[in-house]
Design brief:
single chain; 10 helices; 14 strands; 31% helix; globular; Gp3-like
């Protein structure tokens, strides 16, 4: 039986990004592209993608972190739509990271309804984060022509993509967990105030055939069991029963105070995945404080104090013992290195969101997805360069 999601969030490994834009000269004004651009920490992946879709692979300076990129000539690529590969929020980002994320009504960072009158200082301006939020659609897909297992994430801030991609991605869930598709860049035109503007929109096109699509629509509408189609590779699936999706849950203070080091690591990864770490008085800070208590207890070889006896949640989240393989010697445990990063960042006066965002900007991946080596490299950068909080 899999570990409960609040302890361990399962996901596909992210190999790189599919980007729709770039900055002029690498650091200038943002510009949109008419063909796909790929970035990754892996030189091999980028060179293979250049062979597949054209373009010249080259080193890429990702805010001081070495990576690779290729501007391809492809406007259409085959992909595989994966289950759970779509997220969509209204977001507002500023120097301190993501300041607002909501579904239009509920702020997922605070768990409270959006404050339509909120005013915050950003630089020299006072703005309303809810009003300034933009649609942010993130789609993770596999590249079947690339010899690598994992997903590549595309991010779009356009209204057209926000309206169209989720509908197709939802349809893919009726077909299966891995659905052949194509990702296109399609030119659109709009006329406003007598002026014509051109822009490119990412479009996800499922490769399931008209006959199979009609069959799915008819059988879903009737509520009967979906049968396998006659096409090669089709498989039988049941008429989908819409499961109740549990909202992300923040562990209580008592649960954090009763947790051991392994459970704290899993709590951290879960909260980070759902952007629920909070600020200086949030659950992330309480987890860091608990880690320091455990470390102090280990240093004195005394049992760590607990403010509450370990208790199982009603849903059984913490009632099972989770055993990990022992981490190799030499600091190769990503969780240990991440705690060292947090301690160093705390000495610099940086907040948890600033550290997380700074790492994502430098490495193009979340800290929970990074290897111990990548985290150690960031730790050294942090000790030498610190954090630019105006850009983080």
């Amino acid at each position: 039986m899999p570990i409960k999601p609040i302890v361990l969030q399962q996901r596909h490994a992210e190999l790189g990004r599919i980007r729709l834009g770039a900055k002029e000269g690498g650091k200038g004004r943002p510009m949109k592209l008419e063909s796909f651009r790929f970035t990754s920490h892996s030189e091999r992946y980028i060179r293979d993608l250049a062979e597949l879709y054209g373009g010249e692979p080259r080193p890429w300076d990702n805010n001081g972190i070495k990576g690779w990129e290729v501007f391809t000539t492809a406007q259409s690529i085959p992909v595989i739509a994966v289950k759970g590969g779509l997220t969509q929020w209204m977001e507002f980002w500023a120097g301190g990271g993501c300041m607002h994320r909501c579904d239009g009504e509920m702020n997922v960072l605070t768990g409270e309804p959006c404050d339509l009158e909120e005013q915050v200082q950003v630089g020299k301006k006072v703005i309303n984060p809810h009003a300034e939020a933009r649609p942010t659609t993130r789609l993770s897909v596999m590249l079947p022509e690339l010899e690598a297992i994992g997903v590549w994430r595309m991010e779009s801030h356009g209204w057209n993509a926000a309206a169209e991609i989720p509908a197709v991605a939802e349809l893919a869930q009726y077909v299966g967990d891995l659905v052949p598709a194509h990702l296109h860049l399609v030119e659109r035109r709009a006329i406003k105030d007598g002026k014509t503007s051109r822009f490119v929109v990412p479009v996800l096109d499922l490769q399931i055939g008209t006959a199979r699509l009609k069959e799915i629509v008819a059988e879903v509408s009737s509520g009967t069991e979906l049968s396998a189609g006659s096409g090669a590779g089709a498989r039988a699936i049941e008429a989908p029963q819409q499961p109740e999706v549990e909202a992300p849950r923040v562990p209580t203070d008592a649960e954090i105070d009763a947790a051991d080091m392994d459970t704290l690591k899993r709590m951290w990864s879960y909260l980070q995945e759902h952007n629920l770490l909070g600020d200086d008085d949030g659950p992330g800070a309480r987890i860091v404080a608990r880690v320091e208590v455990l470390r102090a207890a280990e240093a004195t070889q005394q049992p760590a104090p607990q403010t509450a006896e370990p208790q199982a949640n009603p849903d059984g989240t913490y009632d099972a013992e989770v055993v990990e393989d022992a981490a190799p010697a030499g600091g190769d445990d990503p969780g240990v290195v991440w705690q060292q990063i947090l301690a160093t960042a705390g000495e610099l006066g940086a907040t948890l969101p600033q550290v997380t965002h700074d790492f994502e900007q430098r490495y193009a991946l979340a800290p929970s997805e990074a290897s111990a080596g990548e985290l150690r490299a960031y730790l050294e950068v942090l000790r030498v360069e610190g954090i630019d909080r105006d850009a983080a």
